[in-house]
Amino acid sequence: MRRAGHNRGAARDALIDLFAIEGCALTPQEIEGRLSSDRPVARASVYRALELLHSLRLITRIDVGDGVARYERAHLDEGHDHHHHHLLCGACGELVGFEDEHLEAVIHELSGRHGFRISEHEVTLRGTCPSCR
Amino acid sequence: MRRAGHNRGAARDALIDLFAIEGCALTPQEIEGRLSSDRPVARASVYRALELLHSLRLITRIDVGDGVARYERAHLDEGHDHHHHHLLCGACGELVGFEDEHLEAVIHELSGRHGFRISEHEVTLRGTCPSCR
DNA sequence: GTGAATGCAAACTCTTTGCATGACT
DNA sequence: AGTCATGCAAAGAGTTTGCATTCAC
């Protein structure tokens, strides 16, 4: 499916496998670490593969404001849309995903009202997780 | 009002003045540029003042995913809450703010349902602005 | 006068790029 | 064989930190 003019290679394969397993957001560092325990992958290859997958809309980039990028697979499976957003704990840094169809509905409705043609949206809630309260 | 144990200085004064004028998100680079046309302010002082104001909750940090931080004054005035979110044009990079009380209501309602105590939230819509269509 | 804020410059981290090597088709 | 992905190392950008100086109280 990604034979949209791109070959496969060790780094890309490994990245795809990782995203198939891991559902939520990962930083490039985490990705490099996980991959290197199996077969070492150069940092540059991680970034290049991430860029490619992102441009093909197979992964989503998330930025919670700590200066590092995070990526997770795009949840665009036909039928049930597993699109989700994130809760970030300011104390321990835990990042968890959540879905809310009401929120999606409001954003979708909103999208028609500002002259922009909206293609993506991102919602981040910050606070304190149950364990850190 | 920010005599919460902090003195004033040229850099902080200038930053506060700037945020009083400029309502929407600015990057540290933009801030340094604007301030330097008046009285030069060192980059380090910009970052330090931003950190301070942010820790005092007087400004908000926004990250739209392009690798640079943005800050704008916190719209927490009593009475009318001018809290807003952002539309980002992927083509020209323009960033504009919008308010939507319906969206706020949904997020507020949502906040009680995940065990987290939510203190902030951030919504970014990405797409194409009218001029870039 | 004392302590805190500022400026300068160097250090650090994350990310990107150039170029040669190696792999996939 | 030819093309494209990978690895390594160096470059680039944004941000942070150390230390001496200057300013605010």
Verbal overview:
The structure is a homodimer of 133-residue chains. With 133 residues, chain A is of the alpha+beta class. Chain A has two domains: 77 residues, Arc Repressor Mutant, subunit A (Orthogonal Bundle); 51 residues, Ferric-uptake regulator, C-terminal dimerisarion domain (Dna Ligase, domain 1, 2-Layer Sandwich). Chain A contains four helices and five strands; from the N terminus they run αααββββαβ. In chain A, the strands form two sheets. A three-stranded mixed sheet of chain A has the order 4-3-5, with no helix packed on it. A two-stranded antiparallel ribbon of chain A has the order 1-2. The radius of gyration of chain A is 16 Å and the shape is globular. The model of chain A has no long low-confidence stretch (mean pLDDT 87). At the A-B interface, α4 and β5 of A face α4 and β5 of B. β5 of chain A pairs antiparallel with β5 of chain B. Chain B binds a DNA duplex (25 and 25 nucleotides) through α1 and α3.
Count of folded domains of chain A: 2
**Biggest sheet architecture of chain A:** 3 strands, mixed
* CATH homologous group name of the largest domain in chain A: Winged helix-like DNA-binding domain superfamily/Winged helix DNA-binding domain
Main interface by residue count: A-B, 38 and 38 residues
Shape descriptor of chain A: globular
**How is the CATH topology of the largest domain in chain A named?**
Arc Repressor Mutant, subunit A
Main β-sheet, spatial strand arrangement of chain A: 4-3-5
> Distance between termini of chain A?
45 Å
User: Which residues of chain A sit in consecutive blocks of at least 5 with pLDDT less than 50?
Assistant: none
The helix-strand sequence of chain A is HHHEEEEHE
